């Protein structure tokens, strides 16, 4: 990994980004809707991956997707919160690995995106009893969690919304006692400047959080909230 090679890769990525243009929710949705086999989650994911090869996309993609799959298979979460659904790629990855009595709550701030993303989850064959799309900001979604979870806590939280929001949202989840000693956090886009605050916070709380492993810019963090801070 020489600095020259890293610079070359960075320039290539920037050029590809410019050539691909901006992420378009309507175009992404239309492509997935018309090209995938309805009712088959794996086909929906493969179609997203195909789309991302040719167009600008926010999807986490297959490499980070497999990393997330491994965490879900290992932890077998029942209550999952996703912040930043976009068109539903990550939601589909999560839902296909949840047991029938598991539940995904997913927040998406942009109303059109929330509507299109929800449609993709239905196209993939999931039922409304398995997920709830919260068309609001992460902060509003978190403040409404008690009404969805009752006494339950979150087993898995996936943050892929606005890195500036990661720390404030984590602090509220913590304060509202929504995380347990078994909870796992997945943070995407941790190389973005906005994520610096949450990374610094996590390192100052070694008795509450352990940063476990990372693939690309996605990080797994384990919670052990029952231990006292020293
Ligand atoms: C990078 S995309 C998520 C991609 C998704 N994980 C996937 O793989 O398809 C980020 C999404 O978060 C949404 N978002 C940004 N800030 C948010 C916030 N504060 N609350 C809720 N959603 C937010 C954006 O509208 C966008 O759709």
Automatic annotation (TrEMBL):
Keywords: Catecholamine metabolism, Methyltransferase, Neurotransmitter degradation, S-adenosyl-L-methionine, Signal, Transferase. GO terms for biological process: catecholamine catabolic process; developmental process; dopamine metabolic process; methylation. Its EC number is 2.1.1.6. InterPro entries: SAM-dependent_MTases_sf (IPR029063), SAM_O-MeTrfase (IPR002935). One of its GO terms (molecular function) is catechol O-methyltransferase activity. Pfam families: Methyltransf_3. It comes from the Eukaryota. Belongs to the class I-like SAM-binding methyltransferase superfamily. Cation-dependent O-methyltransferase family. This is catechol O-methyltransferase. It comes from Hemibagrus wyckioides.
């Amino acid at each position: 990994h020489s600095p020259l090679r890293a610079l070359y890769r960075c320039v290539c990525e920037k050029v590809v980004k410019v050539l691909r243009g901006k992420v378009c929710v309507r175009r992404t949705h239309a492509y997935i809707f018309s090209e995938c086999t309805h009712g088959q989650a794996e086909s929906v994911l493969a179609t997203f991956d195909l789309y991302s090869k040719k167009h600008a996309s926010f999807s986490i993609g297959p490499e980070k997707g497999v990393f997330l799959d491994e965490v879900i298979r290992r932890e077998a979460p029942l209550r999952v919160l996703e912040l930043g659904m976009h068109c539903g790629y990550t939601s589909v990855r999560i839902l296909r690995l949840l047991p029938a009595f598991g539940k995904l709550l997913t927040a998406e701030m942009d109303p059109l995106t929330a509507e299109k993303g929800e449609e993709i989850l239905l196209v993939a064959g999931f039922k409304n009893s398995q997920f709830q799309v919260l068309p609001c900001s992460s902060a509003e979604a978190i403040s409404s969690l008690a009404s969805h979870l009752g006494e339950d806590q979150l087993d898995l939280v996936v943050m892929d919304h606005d890195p500036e929001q990661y720390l404030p949202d984590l602090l509220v989840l913590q304060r509202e006692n929504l995380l347990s000693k078994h909870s796992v956090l997945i943070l995407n886009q941790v190389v973005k400047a906005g994520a610096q605050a949450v990374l610094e916070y996590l390192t100052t709380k070694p008795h509450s959080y352990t940063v476990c492993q990372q693939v690309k810019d996605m990080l797994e963090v384990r919670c052990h909230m029952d231990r006292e801070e020293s």
